[in-house]
């Protein structure tokens, strides 16, 4: 199956957070660096939730196919 909305949004947040973190570090802006770090972490969590949801859906679909439904 293809990635779901949570996985995609999570990856986008991870990337945006990484950029903010690096820009904040380069500019010496601790607040921006912290914001980026938080956004990157939240994106990683959201992506993980999306992956788990997709895998559960795939397992349910496979179980249904094995039962002949």
* Cα separation of the termini: 19 Å
Binned strand content: under 5%
Strand tally is 0
Number of domains: 1
Radius of gyration: 17 Å
Backbone shape: rod-shaped
Number of helices: 2
Summarize the biggest pleated sheet. none
Low-confidence spans: pLDDT under 50, at least 5 residues? none
The mean pLDDT is: 94
SSE order, one letter for each helix or strand: HH
SSE-based structural type: mainly alpha
Task: Give the helix level as a range of percent.
Answer: over 70%
Could you explain how this protein is built, in words?
The protein is an all-alpha fold and about 70 residues long. The protein has one domain. About 85% of the residues lie in helices and about 0% in strands. The protein has helices spanning about 5-25, 30-65. α1 (about 5-25) runs antiparallel to α2. The chain is rod-shaped. The two termini are about 20 Å apart. The mean pLDDT is about 95.
Please describe the structure with a list of short key phrases separated by commas or semicolons.
single chain, 69 residues, mainly alpha, 2 helices, 87% helix, 0% strand
Summarize the SSE layout with pairings.
Elements: H1 5-27, H2 30-66
Helix pairs in contact: 1-2
Summarize the structure.
The chain has helices at residues 5-27, 30-66. By secondary structure, it is an all-alpha fold.
């Amino acid at each position: 199956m293809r990635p779901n909305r949570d996985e995609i949004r999570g990856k986008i947040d991870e990337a945006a957070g990484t950029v903010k973190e690096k820009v904040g570090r380069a500019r010496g802006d601790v607040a921006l660096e912290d914001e980026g770090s938080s956004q990157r972490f939240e994106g990683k969590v959201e992506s993980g939730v999306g992956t788990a949801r997709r895998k559960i859906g795939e397992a349910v679909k496979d179980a249904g196919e094995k039962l002949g439904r």
